Amino acid sequence: MAAVGSAVGLGNIWRFPYEAGQNGGGAFLLVYLICVFILGIPTLMAEMTLGRMAKTNSVEAFRRMSSHPVFSRIGYLGVFSCLLILGFYTVVAGWTFQYMWESVSGGIEGMTSEQFSQSFVEFSSSPFQPIFWTVLMFLITHLIIIGGVQKGIERASKFMMPLLFVLLVVLCGNSLTLDGAREGLSFLFKPDFSAINSSVVLSAMGQAFFSLSLGAGVMITYASYFEKDVNLPRTVTTVSLLDTSVALLAGVVIFPAVFTFGIEPTQGPNLVFVTLPNIFAQLPWGSVWSFFFFLLLALASITSLISLHQVVTAYVEEEFRLSNRKSALVVSCLAAVLAVFASLSLGVMNDVQIAGMCLFDLLDYVTAKIMMPLGSLLLCVFMGWRLDKSELINEVTNHGTLRWRLAKVWVVALKYVIPILITLVFVNELGLFKL
Ligand code: TRP
Predict the structure, then answer these.
(1) What's the pLDDT at 148?
(2) 343 contacts 98 by C-beta, under 8 angstroms
(3) 413 lines ligand 1 (CB under 6 A)
(4) Closest ligand 1 atom, CA of 304?
(5) Whose CA is nearest to atom 6 of ligand 1?
(6) pLDDT for 155-208, tens place per residue?
(7) Could you write out the three-class secondary structure of the chain?
(8) N or C terminus: fewer CB in 10 A for the chain?
């Protein structure tokens, strides 16, 4: 359930709809689902297998399993990815607080669609409020990491995550009754094959890795706590099914509303935050729905933030022989500085652009579309080529006590299919080669 907590978060509810909106809807969804099945699931299996074999944090796991100069260092890439993700993910997580606040202070009643958009842009580009919420998010994550309220969070998320699922199902039902339902659903589910190009494929692949928390060592670290009798294939199936269904539900909630309220589906990171208030505003007791939705979304983000923070903290702790408290503080401060700049880059610092992107967009792009696929590629090559095949199969079948018919197919996927496909997507996007 902790792995589900890491996987399910803003990636599903915020990032999936906006990427789908920008990349042609149905075409994106199709490629995304293919990526989840062919690339994501076997990679998740690989991370969990490695974690349970090595029984240690992600940097140490590679070091312990190999003395090779490159492969023994793959873990560092993951730690760096987590730090960069913390730098923008926390900003978005902070936005959920603003929406909770607005729900209780009566901000959503009687507003039009344009007003919602305008108020979001004003808020997210302001130099103060979003930073205040981001820092609050860091504070909460920090306190959980240093052990204060871990138990409480565990207990809370055990019933709040299923509640988020139920709420999404209810909101889906509501969205299906909207005037734009037909248009929204056909946008999301009807693939326009001519819309598939190299950037759609790269985005879909990045989304698959991002959503399943892959390529950054998170699942390696979590699996290092697994008992010997945990059924890995079943765990992997549960995590990926839940994660993918939450993304699909979010899509079904958002797109009918996008077309009903005349919102531009291609607008990017703003999409969900300008669409949801319209949905709540037309519901009876709208503010109450809105408050609970953003509360649950904040919680789902926190369980993801914990996983990101934990990977970096565990590394700092062991590498620099610092106490847990000190390492967590170093990580929180570093990531918070990055997040403050990421937040400012949506407003007053928007003219500072790198490769045509502001810092916020750059962090998102570099992690999801480059670092996580690269991390996953290296992991699969490492597992497939450097580790002993029979040892891998032994581990996934709990030393022969479980039967997993796909074990051999999985090894082939690690050795050939995944490395080749990821390389092709990269090369294709670079334009060196056209598929
Ligand atoms: N998967 C999470 C989400 O969808 C985000 C996340 C948590 C993540 N840990 C990660 C993404 C590690 C990449 C790597 O919201």
Answers:
(1) 59
(2) no
(3) no
(4) 7
(5) 213
(6) 777 888 899 999 999 999 999 999 999 999 999 999 999 999 999 999 999 999
(7) CHHHHHHCCHHHHHHHHHHHHHCCCHHHHHHHHHHHHHHHHHHHHHHHHHHHHHCCCHHHHHHHHCCCCCHHHHHHHHHHHHHHHHHHHHHHHHHHHHHHHHHHCCCCCCCCHHHHHHHHHHHHHCCCHHHHHHHHHHHHHHHHHCCCCHHHHHHHHHHHHHHHHHHHHHHHHHHHCCCCHHHHHHHHHCCCHHHCCHHHHHHHHHHHHHHCCCCCCHHHHHHCCCCCCCCHHHHHHHHHHHHHHHHHHHHHHHHHHHHHCCCCCCCHHHHHHHHHHHHHHCCCCHHHHHHHHHHHHHHHHHHHHHHHHHHHHHHHHHHCCCCHHHHHHHHHHHHHHHHHHHHHCCCCCCCCCECCECHHHHHHHHHHHHHHHHHHHHHHHHHHHHCCHHHHHHHHCCCCCCCCCCHHHHHHHHHHHHHHHHHHHHHHHHCCCCC
(8) C
* Statement: the pTM of the whole predicted model exceeds 0.90: yes
R_g of the chain computed on alpha carbons: 21
Length of the chain, in residues:
435
* All domains in the chain, ordered by first residue: 2-429 (1.10.4160.10)
Rounded to whole angstroms, the Cα distance separating 95 from 100 reads 9
Nearest-CA residue for ligand 1 atom 10 is 213
For residue 111, the CA-to-ligand 1 centroid distance in Å is 33
Which amino acid would we find at residue 361? D
Query: How far does the centroid of ligand 1 lie from the alpha carbon of residue 283, in Å?
Result: 31
